[in-house]
């Protein structure tokens, strides 16, 4: 399961779970998705929660899993989630701000996770700060 933030044309936001990243696109194409507040069918996913940032990211064992083609394996996704929750500092929607702090502070090796809008992500990318999207799975099903 993957969680997306959904935004409608009237800027209502809500969260929804999908079995995988293709499911949203398929359902949306068929107009089977609608805003829970105003029933608009003009919706898009604004954020995939969460994203991670850390200078040591590539070297950390847990996240090397992301490089492998195991992302359809729920057990692997759960491992990644557990690893992040244990080793990364949660910064909520302050991710873009905190990622900058970590990036420009030469002494810190902190790894953080949280959410950012696609606009914030673009801005960070221009500064050379790459956030890594993490497919997030639901622990319960
Ligand atoms: Zn709406």
Largest sheet: 4 strands, mixed
Q: What is Rg? A: 16 Å
Name the average pLDDT: 81
Strand order of the main beta sheet, please?
Answer: 5-6-4-7
**Residue share in β-strands:** 15-25%
Ligand set: zinc ion
Count of helical stretches: 5
Q: Classify the secondary structure makeup into a structural class.
A: alpha+beta
Gap from first CA to last CA: 8 Å
Poorly predicted ranges (pLDDT <50, ≥5 residues)? none
Give the oligomeric state: single chain
The H/E string reads EEHEEHHEHEHE
Whole-number count of domains = 2
The tally of strands reads 7
The helical percent reads 25-40%
| Overall geometric form | globular
What are the salient characteristics of this protein?
single chain, 141 residues, alpha+beta, 2 domains, four-stranded mixed beta sheet, three-stranded antiparallel beta sheet, 23% strand, binds zinc ion
Provide structural commentary.
With 141 residues, the chain is α+β, with helices and mostly antiparallel strands. The chain is built from five helices and seven strands, in the order ββαββααβαβαβ. The radius of gyration is 16 Å and the shape is globular. The chain has helices spanning 21-29, 61-64, 74-87, 95-104, 118-126; strands at residues 2-8, 13-18, 43-48, 51-54, 89-92, 111-114, 132-133. β1 (2-8) and β2 (13-18) form a beta hairpin. The strands form two sheets. The protein has a four-stranded mixed β-sheet, with helices on both faces. It has two domains: 2-48, no CATH class; 51-133, no CATH class. Residues 8, 10, 12, 35, 37-38, 40 line the site of zinc ion.
């Amino acid at each position: 399961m993957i969680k997306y933030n959904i935004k409608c044309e009237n800027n209502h936001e809500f969260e929804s779970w999908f079995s995988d990243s293709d499911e949203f696109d398929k359902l949306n194409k068929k107009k089977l998705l609608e805003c829970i507040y105003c029933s608009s069918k003009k919706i898009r996913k604004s954020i995939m929660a969460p994203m991670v940032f850390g200078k040591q990211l590539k070297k950390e064992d847990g996240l090397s899993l992301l490089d492998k083609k195991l992302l359809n394996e729920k057990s692997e996704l759960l491992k990644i989630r557990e690893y992040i929750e244990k080793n990364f500092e949660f910064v909520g929607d302050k991710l873009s701000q905190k990622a900058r702090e970590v990036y420009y502070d030469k002494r810190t090796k902190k790894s953080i996770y949280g959410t950012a809008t696609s606009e914030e992500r673009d801005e960070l990318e221009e500064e050379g700060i790459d956030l890594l999207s993490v497919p997030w799975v639901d622990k319960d099903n």
